[in-house]
Structures are given as C-alpha cells and as structure tokens.
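Researcher: I'm preparing a figure for a lab meeting and need a structural model of a single chain. I don't have an experimental structure, so a prediction will have to do for now. The sequence is pasted below. Please return the structure as tokens so I can convert it later.
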Amino acid sequence: MTDPVPEIEEWLADALNSAATSWSVGTFGALAEFAYGPDDPVERSSAGGTRSITSDLGALRLTVPAESRLFAYEGLSKLPAYWSQGISLCMPDSAASLSGRSALTVIGEDQGAIRPDDRPGVLVDLGVGAPHIEACVRIADEQLLRDIEPWLGKSLFTEGHAAAERLYEASPHRVFRSAAARIEVYGPIPQPGGATPPGPHTHLLPDLLRHDRAFAANTPIPVGWLPVLNAYPPNPARDTFGEPRSFDREDHRRFQRLIDAFGVPGMVHAKARIRDAVRRGMPPDTERFDTRFERIAARVALRQMSFEEGPSDTLLAWQRALEPGRGIVDPDVV
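Model: Understood. Here is the structure written out token by token.
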C-alpha cells in the first residue's frame, strides 16, 4: 500500500500558498479559523515536516503524522441549488486523542507558541471536553490570571461562571490545537452585535457543544477517525461569505480532483452513477442510493450538473424526484 503522507504534504503545501483556502481546528460548537487575504503580509516557515504561516491577525502551524488521511467531502447548502465542500486531515481516534479536559485549567507557559514573543504567555484550557482538540486562551496579563483563579477546575459553561465574561471582555489570544495543527487568533473577540471578522477568528457555542459531537452530522468522516485540521478550498459557486458568485469552472475541476482522490468511495460512486444516468437520459430512480450520504452526494451532483452543463429535461426530472422545489438553477444566472 502506498504511503499517503507525501501526497498529503504536497497538497497541504500548495493549499497554504493560496489565500483562497481557509482553515479550521475545532469541534462541533468550538472552532478556530485561519485565513488571509491576497494582499495581507504573511510569513511562512517550514522545518522538519512542520509548516507555519503567520499574519498580523493570526497563525497556523501544521504537521502530517504518519497515521493521517485526507477525506474530501461535499454537502448540501442551505441555499437552494448550491453546495458546500471541505477537506479534513484525520487521524484514528486513539492517535488523535488529547486531554479531553472539561474544566477551566491552567496548562502553563505556552512554549509551543508560533511567535517566540508569545511564549511567556500562560496557556489556559477552556475545557470544551472534546477528545481531539483543546480550545485555549493565552494570557499575558497577571491580573487577568488572578481574576479567573477562583473559577479554575470548574466548567466554563455552568451558570454564573464569571470567568467566561471576564475572558470575553479581556479578549486574550485564542489558541486551538490538535494532534496535527494549531491555530492562533490575535484579533479581538467581536462585541455583542459585531460582525465576525473575515480573517482569523473563533466561535464558541455552548448550545452546540452540548451535543457532544466531534463534527457535524452531515460531515461524512468514517467511524474511527477524527478531524485534526480542516481546509476549505474556494467554492466554485459561492464566495468567501457564502453568497452566490459566477461559476468558476477551474475551481470546480480542482476540487473534483480532490473528491476523486480523497472522497468517501460510496459518495464518489453515487455521483458517478447519477451523472451517467442523466447523460444517458434514464428516468429517475430514487432507489438507486442506499445510504443518506449517497443520496446527499447524488443531490450535490445534480446541482453541479446544472452549473456545468445547463438544464435538460432528464436533469430536471431527476431534480424534481430527489429534491422537489430545491436545487433547480435558472440557466440565465449560471
């Protein structure tokens, strides 16, 4: 069996050089995202299999452990006729597991900080309880450390936990780390009513954390694997804010190559079957797909064919059969 690590490293190196690709480390309900603009100054480094990229607002560092695999996937957008896409670097459950802390905990000086000047700061685990990531803050203010000390050892998400509000006000650096990657966010936390910044930022959503899921239910990562880094290459039909844009065929072709190489086999085959059926003019047959993920893949394929090839009677018939009222594109806007 061919060692997949060199191929993964090659893809990640190319993706890091593209401002169009964004990244995340997190779990369902707690996420750190890293992105930079084409005109943003960034510093890159590579040594011993570890790569990093740093901007004024955040940083990403990653490595590719020997146990790693890539899983490319597509899903259904909330916008009718569109789809989402992503790619996850995953590790087996046992290899991906970290501390799983569920209480506010002081770890110590952050000797793993990406920028040397940040290493004297004290890393504090927020205790989200996820098995495969640690969501932390880095505190350089001794008064802030004293302020949260009475709340150490308690869940940040219990009612009346005053440390949560104090950390929110102080807005220290956020540091999310996994067995393969680290994302640091330096910019301030948006205040109530403020917009999420387009560059590096974090999300902490207690209501979602209570579901105790490592990733969203619609993400087709196989059982026994956990995502330690996620990448989001440019969507060919939606911009970075998720809004429709002119269809970019080259972006689409690039991601389809990733799907062919790293997609979940059942979903890849489902897409191929429905594309073949439409092109051969076969009538709809909703029994052709055995699992929920195969049906999702089939619906995504139909939506993509609307952009790639335009409408046809057969395509419209399949769309009406598999997703009535959704997924049909006006060819004048393609």
